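Researcher: We're reviewing a set of sequences before deciding which ones to prioritize for further study. For each one, I'd like a predicted 3D structure that I can look through quickly. This is DUF2784 family protein. If possible, include the structure in token form so it fits the rest of the review sheet.
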Amino acid sequence: MPFAWPYQLLADAVLVAHLAVVLFVVAGLVLVVLGNRRHWPWVNAPAFRLAHLATIAVVVAEAWLGLVCPLTTLEAWLRSRAGAPVDDSRVLEHWLQALLFWDGPPWVFTAGYTLFGLAVVASWWRWPPRRRRADPSPAATPPAAGPTRARSPARPAPPAGGQW
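Model: Here's the predicted structure for DUF2784 family protein, in token form for your review sheet.
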């Protein structure tokens, strides 16, 4: 096939993206736990935590519904368009696929993904996402509420003789 290389390159890119998603899910939970123990405020940023929860939620839903990951399907389609057998692996493909794809009964993966998803949910309960606090500088702090007393003017200086 004369134009097989773009499909092969895209299939490799999808495989790397798939690995990145897996690393985000696994490392994300590790970072949330470790970061909260070390008081790293960014690990509780709502955007990071929502993206992490949504990603594992999709994985768990796919497992429970018996769906094949769309990244796996896309990679296989690109490899077939390249004219390569789907199980034919070069060095990069071989090692990345060995990291991502294991043999086992589907229930094992469903249980594993579900337990991991529950761990992510537990991390939300233990360390809820938080927005960063506003700048605590005096210029950013609003005045205290309640009545205020007007300051009395400074006492004028005594006359030249020192007496009033």
